[in-house]
Amino acid sequence: RAKKVPNTNYEYFAPEIEEQTTWRLHLIRRLRSDFANRKLELWSQPQIELASEKVIGMEGLLRWPDGNGGYISPAEFVPLAEYSGLIVDIGHWVLEESCRRLQELKKLGYPHLRVAVNVSIPQFRDPEFVNKVKRLLTEYNLPPSLLELEITESVVMDEPQIVIDALTDLKEFGVTIAIDDFGTGFSSMSYLQKLPLHRLKVDRSFVKDIGVGESALIAETIVTLGNKLGLVTIAEGIEKREQANHMIKLGCDEAQGYLFGKPMPFNELIAFLAEHDANNG
Ligand code: C2E
Ligand code: MG
Ligand code: MG
Ligand code: MG
Hints:
It comes from Marisediminitalea aggregata. By secondary structure, the chain is an alpha/beta fold. Helices cover 51% and strands 21% of the residues. The protein has twelve helices and eleven strands. The chain has helices at residues 15-36, 74-84, 87-107, 121-125, 129-139, 153-158, 160-173, 189-194, 204-208, 213-228, 241-250, 266-280; strands spanning 2-4, 11-13, 41-49, 55-65, 71-72, 114-118, 147-152, 176-182, 199-202, 232-236, 254-256. The protein has an eight-stranded mixed barrel with strand order 3-4-6-7-8-9-10-11, surrounded by four helices. Strands 1-2 form a two-stranded antiparallel sheet. The longest helix has 22 residues, at 15-36.
């Protein structure tokens, strides 16, 4: 927060800003060394089909151990990883780890489950990005349709042409694309048509107070829009049974949320799948 020096046009930065900058640089250095030392974890959160409650796939979510038994939220460190450019290498690791998991899921008898991966703007700015994704899928001998890339509206708005070109190429290759946190950004409706989308993720803020007031209306509008555009709709952040029921009524296809399963380490997800299968036929 810059402050104005009275009666001049000068601005100066308050000392707390300098402290924050030092802290951020410190975090970036730690993130770089923890990533190099393979300390980052990729957790998985199940995604289910609402009608059958069968697991259809999972989203990979980064976790950064804080050294005290806790974790630093990706909401906090992903922006630093983006700012520093580290996200290009971290993101590649996430993609490769996801491909490894798809192979393992196949071996374990789950050849249809797909894995979704969040992708940031610096990754798209890497001119090798599309080739890297194709190479991984080929190297791991995977049907590309099992890999889904999640992008937010802000990624599209930042670099529309680069993102549209990359995604169009990847979709032709068979990769599927989801638009994440839909409704929270400022996407122009015309981009929805230009993007080769497969899935639309309804942001959890609209699911939260479902049944009351405006967020319910927005959720309904987003699901209707998705359905009319021929996209699969998935509701994020389903915590309560009533929310799931309401989303089914609106015509939403799939869900992800604490009600069905929290993000968990991959080995726990495998145990979850076996148990879930036993309970859901
Ligand atoms: P996102 O992609 O929208 O991920 C969904 C977030 O919602 C996750 O937060 C998840 O833990 C949380 N969530 C899921 N179900 C529920 C629920 O029922 N209730 C509540 N309150 N929350 C729920 P998380 O894991 O903290 O991740 C935050 C964001 O960090 C992600 O939002 C994504 O934008 C970013 N992120 C995570 N992993 C990666 C990654 O590998 N690469 C990139 N570029 N970004 C990542
Ligand atoms: Mg996501
Ligand atoms: Mg989301
Ligand atoms: Mg989000």
